[in-house]
Amino acid sequence: MPLVYITRREHFNAAHKLWNPAWSEEKNFEVFGKCANVNWHGHNYELFVTVKGQPHPDTGCIIDLKLLSSIIKRRVIEELDHKNLNLDVPFLKGVMASTENLAVAIWQQLQEEVESHGCRLHSIRLHETENNSAEYFGE
Length: 139
Ligand code: NI
What we know:
Order of helices and strands: EHEHEHEE
CATH topology: Tetrahydropterin Synthase, Chain A
Number of strands: 5
Helix content: 25-40%
Distance between the termini: 25 Å
Bound molecules: nickel (II) ion
Radius of gyration: 17 Å
């Protein structure tokens, strides 16, 4: 049976800043530059969730993509969209709001429920800008 990977894209907008509260203001600006802007800045995030599995003989599908989309929307997008990632999101409490850490946190939000539908979560790819993205494979 072939193993196939399929990807669903979702989108959210959010504000954040990169700021380590253990450091002085000076060190935060030195390390993070504009990303440490005190009054926040925003991104149009593009999220790519890839699952893998064997197409079901009756449907030809690994997972119903409408179902995958609804899981992502409920567990991730509704939590993050139009929010301040540093202040508003319970599952990001105490997490530096970098693209890398967001990718890991999104994996943790999705894995159990996605994998209860007969496929495996393969990767979370999160684009913060056109040029910058992070990818997490659960390791
Ligand atoms: Ni940023």
